[in-house]
Structure formats: C-alpha cells, structure tokens
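The instructor's notes for this session suggest beginning with a concrete chain rather than abstract definitions. Hand out the sequence below and ask the class to guess, before any prediction is shown, which regions might be ordered.
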Amino acid sequence: MSRDTVYLITLMLLAAALRLYGLDSRSLWLDEATSLAIAGQPLSDILGGTGFDRHTPPFYYIVLHLWLLPLDPTVWSLRLLSVFCDVINTGLLFLVARAFLGSPAGLLSSFLWAASPYAVYYGQEGRMYSMAVTLLLVCTLLAAKLRNESFSLAHILLLAATATAGLYTHYYFALAFAALSLAVLLDYKTRPAYVLRWLAACAAAGLAFLPWIGVVLQLAGSGGQSFRVFTFSVLPYTLFRFAAGYAVFPFQFDTKNDFIASASAHGIELAVYCIVFGGAAALGIWQLLKAKDGISKYVLLPLIFPPLAALLVSIKVPMLSERYLIVSYPAFLMCIAAWICRSDGAKFKVAAAMLLELLLCIGLVMHFYNSEFGNTQWNEAAQIVEESAQPNLVIINPDYAADVLAYYMPGKSIYSAIDQLPETETFWLVERGTADSMLSSFTATGWDTRKQILLPKENGIRLFLLGKTKTTSPDAN
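After discussion, reveal the predicted structure:
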C-alpha cells in the first residue's frame, strides 16, 4: 500500500468521524422535513414530480427513497446518506486534485475538505448538496481522463449517466458542468476526438433531461426565490461561509432584523476568515494562471462560472445562495492547495498551512460546541408542548412548517387555523420567527396569552400558550 493511499484512507476516516459526530443532535429543519416527506412517496410520484413543488429535481429523492427502504426514516438515517456521499467526496477530491495539480495538492485539498466546517455542515444535512458534489467530482475526474487521452467508451457511458443524474439532482450542477465542459472544449485543438466523445455524452445527458425542461422554464418564469433580496451581498457572504462554516457568526432570531449591526459585532471574525482564505485562494489562482500546462481552466472555470452565471440570472430570477455554490467549493479548495504546494519556501508553506488549519479547527469547535449555533429548534418546541400540563393542541404558523413539527409529535393533529381545533380551553400557537404573527388575531377574539417562549436559534420559533379569556360576572363580589 502506497503512502498516498494510507494518507487518503486516514483523511476519509477523519471525514467520516467529523460527520458522524453529533449527526442527529441538531433539529430537523424545514427542507430536511421536505426531504423525508418526498422520499416517503411512491417512486412514480417522485419521478413525475407530482408529489412536491419541483423546486429541485427528483434524483436525490429517488436515491433517498431507496436508501430508507431498509431503514427507519429518522433524522440519523436521513443525514447518513449525506455523510456517505461526503466521505466519498473526500476521496474523489484527492483523485481530481492529484490529476490536475499533483499528489501533494491532492492530499491537501482532500484534508481541507475533510476538515472544512462548511463541508461538514452539508455532510450532516439531509439534502442533496453533498450528492451533487459527488456527481460533479466524478465528471471532473472523467475530464482528467480525457486530458490524459484515456477516454474510452466506458467513460463516455459513465459521463452520460453521471451528468444526467447530476442534472436531475440540482440545477446548479448544470452551471458547474457547463463550466467543466467549456474547459474540455478549449482543448479541442489538441484532443479533437476525445472532446467529440465528451460532447456526445453531454448530448445524451441533455436528451435525458428533456422531460424536465418544462419544469425549468416554469421556474424561470415564476419570479424565483423572492425572499433572496440581498443578491449582491451573497458572494462575499459565500466566501465567509466557505472559510468559516456556519457556527462562526451564527444566525439568531433577530440577526436579519439589523444585519449590519450583527455583522459589525462579528467584524473581526469576518475579516480574518475572508482575508486569510480569500487571499490564499487568490494567490492560488495567480499560481494557476502562471502555469503553462493548460490545467488552470479545469479549476478556475468551475470556480468562477457558477457564481457569476447565477448572479446574472438572479438579477431577474433570484436564485443565488451560498449553499447552492457548494458546486464551486472543490475548486476553491484546490486553488488554496495550489498556492501552498506551488509557492517557494518550505517554512512559508508550513506557516500558511498551520494558519489555515488553526482557523478550520476553530470553525469545527464552534460547529460542534457553540451554544448559539444550530438549526431552528423544532425539536425543543415539540418537547415544550409535549411536556406541558396543558392539552397539546397546536396551531402552526406558517402551515408549511407542519411537517417538521409533526415529525417530533407523531400521531398528533397539528392545525393551521382556530376553526380547525376541537373544543378546547387552551392551545399552543407555534410560529416560525420569520412569519407574520397570528397572535393579535387571537387576542382580539377572546384568547389570553398564558405563556410565551422564544427559541432563538436560526430563524427562531415563538411559542404562545393561549387560553380563553376569563370574564367576571357583575355580582361576583
């Protein structure tokens, strides 16, 4: 067994340990509840997209459906699929970076991914982002095969299948795959036959995706994700999350109310992480641009094209998000690895690597132990309701949050309006913090607030125990 193999196995074990640790400690959140709900539908409904709003394509839900067949549909088993994909990503990134940048850069890229708080976050989330990266890295590895002129019929078939799966996993995969295909196309003069084979696989994937094109066009005309109102601040925010993860400057209930003040309170962290990691990536880009081996386009196009394309589209149809830009994250880490491994001076390399490692460790410690960090606390909200001495009748606001609360209150009826409740003297009003409150409408119609609780993590949850107003008769004295 070679030394690189031993190192890689160690890094994959590290990745697995970090992603399995505390896997189900944070609450399920709305999108993860959606994953479970869709995966629990018949395959025919998932394939046709008839059982959900088709905001994302169905491939991840199909895989999750099959994954959960022998397992109980729990938070742990839901997230375990992402763990599995992300451990594979650690190995795939080594192979990709080694193919383009050499073995030292491959090992460093793999380490950065394994220890990245940002990658750990999505490796512990029951969504499709880690799987989208897996499929993209397989395609990138096939591009490396093409560049080495070993692109056989089997590789063509694998590329067509993987690209099709990626297109049906997340729409941002298409942006990253387009960037990768452009890099391949730029090698046409030196490898025309192999590039034509690549294009044939792309055509096959495009044809396979045609049944879903109508959905894409419908989304394009829908106005996009209207809540994404800070389009031009997303890219610097993405740089910070790439570097620090989500537990450094975690969002609380009131963060978005005065974001400038919240960001100012964390100005040191924002500056340090953005300057160190952004500077390292910029120097890596410079190192790649100076190289004469023609590999820079395979790293830089997948890094730059997806965010810029998404930014342009988002001017009309808001769709830009730091979580979707995970497709550019492998290239970001490869740029950092290229800078460290290609720069002169052994002492300088060691110092730079140690600084990056220190900041990653701080981010990881915060990820696992920062008491202010976590998903919206639906598990705690359900526990408060269940443990109260009052009837655990619940009105949820907004109604689309019912699935996630119902997961923690199995068998309970959860309502969205007062006229749906059975006759009762008390009930709980549970509201997502970002929703317009229904409290005033209840207090105006004869209900008193007996208790109120705020759970502040992420978007926050407000809980109100409401009871019928007690009236005093005129001769009560």
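Then share the key points. Residues 378-468 form a domain with the D-Maltodextrin-Binding Protein; domain 2 fold (CATH 3.40.190). Confidence is low (pLDDT under 50) at residues 472-477.
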